[in-house]
Amino acid sequence: MARKATPQTVMQPKLSLNEGQIRRGIERLKQRIADLDAFELNTMQGSTSPELKALERSIEDTLERCFGTNTSASIRYNEAHSLHYQPTIWVSGMPDPDYKGITGKKISHAKASLEQAINALNTDLEDLDGAPHLNASSKTKPKDSSPRVFLVHGHDEAVRETVARFIERLGIEVIILHEQANSGRTIIEKIEHHSEVGMAVVLLTPDDVGSKIGGKLEPRVRQNVLLELGYFIGALGRSKVCALKSGDVDIPTDFAGVVWTQMSGDWKTALARELKVAGYEIDWNKVMS
Q1: Is residue 92 included in any domain, yes or no?
Q2: Based on the structure, what is the number of domains in the chain?
């Protein structure tokens, strides 16, 4: 009987990313390096730990977002999400391998591989528009390197991703706080560090409920969203803050009278118009696509 041929994996073409997607990919890769730095080998029991498995999946997902699946680029960085050691031969009675030591070396190799991935994306940036090279270990970012928008959000991940993808499609980098490295900073320090943007887009979604004492509970925006809304109104001015309201949510009285955009109908055109007024270059063909 003839042996059945094993199907070969078809190599996929390299992803084509715009400037905003590339810059966001760089930030995500830096966060994965920070995650590797923060991993505690003492959490391992034997050859693995739940944290190590989660870290592998997170790195693999980030690389797929940056380089695709089954592309030559993604295969090049497979080592970055291969953190577990699997002995090829083990005989009963043999001493257990030094899993912690081996994992520590794998983490070092993974960090080096992710640094190479960042350098590759920086090269893609240079190919796009001649942007200056950003070293993977750079601690600062030029203020005028690209248009950026800070996206303030609550717990509604679907709304967050919808708005973020739309803004990125316009070639604008989106800053989402939890995707940025902590670097030992508090939350408010992270906000201040990333507040050099041309505009803040604030998503008003009904994530909490509340009322005055004895009153009827009503859907409300999360407190952190209100705090960041006030921060950016003070830091950028009201004209550089665009609020998108999703669903039925109680609006604070201090914000009454300020125009917000309802996320229904032609909200994309309305948001693009606000970005245009704030000084961003808008390709209206991309808005309508």
Answers
A1: no
A2: 2
